[in-house]
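Below is how a single chain appears once it has passed through the pipeline. First comes the sequence as given, then the structure the pipeline wrote out for it. We keep one example in the README because the format questions we get most often are answered faster by looking than by reading.
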Amino acid sequence: MPLIHEPARLRDSAWLLTYDIASKDRWRRMYRLARGEGIRLQYSVFLMPWEDLPEGFSDAVEKIIDPQQDDVRVYHLPAGTRVWYTPTGSDHGLIEMLL
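Resulting structure:
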């Protein structure tokens, strides 16, 4: 099995969603929100294949988190960004994604 696969292409750009949530219940709700559209890269890190942040996303996050205890970050990844990851529990090796 090769270490690096051919890059997969997403849309023109994407967003990297990361979060550190203190409560298990809030973490689960944030996880469900992220996994609905995102590609899980790590425990609390998702690649979201969006051109722009969806309308209502900020409101949905604000309803879940406690801003005194939780941290949510969303980074824009412009077109042409290269992302490498190894899926947890997989023997596929290092996978490259080209945005």
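The chain has one domain: 12-81.

See the next section for the split statistics.
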